[in-house]
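Design a sequence for this backbone.
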């Protein structure tokens, strides 16, 4: 027996979890999603993720066929059905089945599914020794054209960047805005430490306001580390004392080399290590119990 998938109100076997080739999520990337994690039977920041999913859906005029409370219960039910205590959760809502035209009015009902699975992590070495990234040629989408706060099923911009990073022999890509300012990585936000302060680009640089990003900013403030959102260039990154990425899957991943330039001591920095420890502690206590 394979994993159970929550699909349109029912738990079905993964081999039976199928959607139509006329689904506009597939034909046009017309839909929204979230990636969530659970740690030791605690779903981390579940409310925040569900709130963000509903905001994404509201902006694209997509009606989610359940309440936020029902959605949180469905996530927990799917995790329980699969007996997963430490898991990755993918929540997806698409426009649903329509015809071959773009018109979303042709789609009667949204398609909703929840996949819960084992989490694929960066190797331990990344957290111990740090990771190398490169700037890629593909800029982040113009936020004026597609607001990055909409976590939509259109990830081609990020996928192209990921391919460029892989071609360059590294695991992650640094994406700039169309004007050449630092934005984010393909599925992670970026931070630096400079003069002892924690700096990260503002949302108007064209980035997703990550839930991990918000969490790390809060942890830093609690630790009396000054936190600022500032536009930054690659020069600022190259000359930072420390650098790291944040995301649901990556948590806090130290960066020690960017475009061939070593960052700080070329090892995960002391502030980064402190924040990693505080974040790990939070994931053990903060969350929806199941
Ligand atoms: N930026 C983008 C563009 C993202 O898609 C983040 C930042 C980090 O946000 P959170 O809320 O997770 O701190 C994301 C996260 C993955 C994966 O498997 C992650 C994301 C999307 C697709 C895959 O790592 N989103």
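Sequence:
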């Amino acid at each position: 027996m394979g994993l159970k998938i929550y699909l349109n109100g029912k738990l079905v076997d993964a081999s039976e979890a199928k959607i139509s080739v006329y689904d506009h999520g597939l034909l046009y990337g017309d839909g929204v999603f979230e990636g969530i994690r659970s740690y030791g039977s605690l779903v981390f920041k579940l409310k925040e993720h569900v709130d963000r999913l509903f905001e994404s859906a509201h902006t694209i005029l997509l009606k989610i066929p359940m309440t936020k409370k029902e959605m949180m219960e469905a996530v927990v039910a799917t995790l329980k059905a699969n007996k997963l205590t430490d898991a990755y959760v993918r929540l997806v809502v698409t426009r649903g089945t329509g015809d071959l035209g773009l018109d979303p009015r042709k789609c009667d009902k949204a398609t909703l599914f929840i996949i819960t699975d084992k989490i694929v992590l960066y190797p331990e070495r990344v957290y111990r020794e740090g990771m190398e990234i490169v700037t890629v040629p593909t800029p982040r989408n113009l936020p004026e054209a597609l607001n990055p706060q909409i976590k939509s099923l259109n990830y081609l911009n990020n996928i192209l960047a990921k391919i460029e990073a892989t071609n360059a022999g590294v695991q992650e890509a640094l994406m700039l805005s169309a004007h050449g300012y630092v934005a984010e990585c393909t599925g992670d936000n970026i931070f630096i430490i400079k003069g002892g302060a924690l700096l990260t680009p503002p949302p108007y640089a064209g980035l997703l306001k990550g839930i991990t990003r918000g969490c790390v900013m809060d942890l830093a403030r609690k630790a009396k580390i000054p936190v600022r959102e500032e536009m930054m260039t690659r020069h600022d990154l190259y000359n930072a004392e420390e650098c790291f990425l944040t995301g649901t899957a990556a948590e806090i991943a130290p960066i020690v080399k960017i475009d061939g330039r070593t960052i700080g001591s070329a090892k995960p920095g002391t502030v980064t290590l402190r924040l990693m420890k505080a974040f790990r502690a939070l994931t053990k206590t903060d969350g929806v119990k199941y």
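The helical segments are 24-28, 46-59, 68-81, 124-129, 156-167, 211-222, 234-238, 270-285.
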